[in-house]
Design brief:
This protein is α+β, with helices and mostly antiparallel strands and 115 residues long. 37% of the residues lie in helices and 18% in strands. The chain has a four-stranded mixed beta sheet. The radius of gyration is 13 Å and the shape is globular. The chain binds zinc ion.
């Protein structure tokens, strides 16, 4: 990932809209409303979206970011997310930040920071 940036690209803003929509879906099954959208950094094409599913899946790793990475990896047939960026509605936790780094995703755009 690159360092933090205050300049949002139009692709990142569009992806954040999708991530926010996904976040709302998490509340339908009692999960914390966090959503993520993985997109092509150059074209803005959405590659995968996901929302938190820890409660409904009884899976402590079912965070939106991890689920989006898994969906994209299955689609692409590989784990490298080079050239992709992620919009996520909440600053990634340690697990997700590690997953994003390991996936070689290029940039994470967060709408809110954890405190
Ligand atoms: Zn997480």
């Amino acid at each position: 990932m690159d360092g933090p940036s205050d300049v949002w690209t139009s692709h990142a803003l569009a992806a954040m809209d999708r991530a926010i929509s996904e976040a709302g879906r998490a509340t339908e099954h009692g999960d914390v409303p966090v959503g993520a959208a993985l997109f092509d950094s150059a074209t803005g094409a959405i590659v995968a979206t996901a929302h938190n599913r820890r409660e409904v899946d009884a899976d402590p790793t079912a965070h939106a970011e991890v689920l989006a990475l898994r969906a994209a990896a299955a689609q692409r047939g590989g784990w490298r997310m080079t050239g992709l960026s992620m919009a996520v509605t909440l600053e990634p936790c340690v697990m997700c930040a590690g997953a994003l780094l390991n996936a070689r995703e290029s940039t994470a755009w967060c709408s809110a920071r954890s405190i």
